[in-house]
Amino acid sequence: MKQRATNELRNLRTLADFSNLETAEQADYFRHNYREFLPEEFWRPGVLLAGKRGPSDWRYLQSGVRAAWREKFPPDACLSLIVFLAISPEQIEGSESVKVWPYQKAIMTLATEPWRARFCKSCGNRYVADKPGRVFCSDSCAKEARKLSKRISWTKHRDEWRGSKKRQRGRRQAQ
Ligand SMILES: [Zn+2]
Fold first, then answer.
1. pTM for this one?
2. Which residues, 6 or more positions from 110, have their beta carbon under 8 angstroms from its beta carbon?
């Protein structure tokens, strides 16, 4: 059970990483580090997607994932993101089982637990919450936000302090 939860969370985090990719270099790095996440053929240009020679760029699938992230993974979007990876002959293992990719499992998990798909309040990146109370994508973002809120409350109090000084001065002048 614990093992399953860890794998599930790892798949979700990989999906968040995929959704946050910006450059071709990042995509290349991702592709080589998470080889089993998506079918290798998916990364090749001109690949057949859902039986059609569709937009081959990984950004096409990514834009779908990003839209679903914004909309909290509604069932329709999840289904289309899952079936988007066409069933190619290589995916059929044996006579009755079809290979299910970690990418598809991650979408499925977010369909049932959409609260996990969030945007970091500090850096703005998409991330997956391991518990409902999570607000930031990482420890460094949480630390950064703490620092910032300290600075903000200091500035606020400094102004209050200055304000009270001014008021005191004003009172003194009025006397
Ligand atoms: Zn962050």
1. 0.76
2. 12, 15, 68, 73, 78, 116, 117, 128
CA-CA distance, 152 to 156, in Å (whole number)? Answer: 6
**pLDDT, tens digit, 9 for 90 and up, residues 4-63:** 778 999 999 999 999 999 998 999 999 999 998 988 877 876 655 555 545 556 888 899
Distance (Å) from CA 130 to ligand 1 centroid: 14
Domain ranges of the chain: 2-136, 138-175
- Model pLDDT for residues 67-122, shown as the tens digit of each residue: 999 999 999 999 999 988 765 555 556 656 778 899 999 999 999 999 999 999 99
Q: Are residues 99 and 66 in contact, defined by beta-carbon separation less than 8 angstroms? A: no
DSSP H or E run through 126: strand 126-128
4 membership: H or E segment, kind and range = helix 2-20
Contact 65, 18 (CB under 8 A): yes
Rounded-to-integer distance, Cα 107 and Cα 77, Å = 9
162, containing H or E segment: helix 139-174
The helix/strand/coil state of 117 is strand
Instruction: Tell me, in angstroms, the distance from the centre of ligand 1 to residue 119's CA.
Output: 8
Question: What's the gap in Å between 144 CA and the centre of ligand 1?
Answer: 9
Cα(23) to ligand 1 centroid in Å equals 18
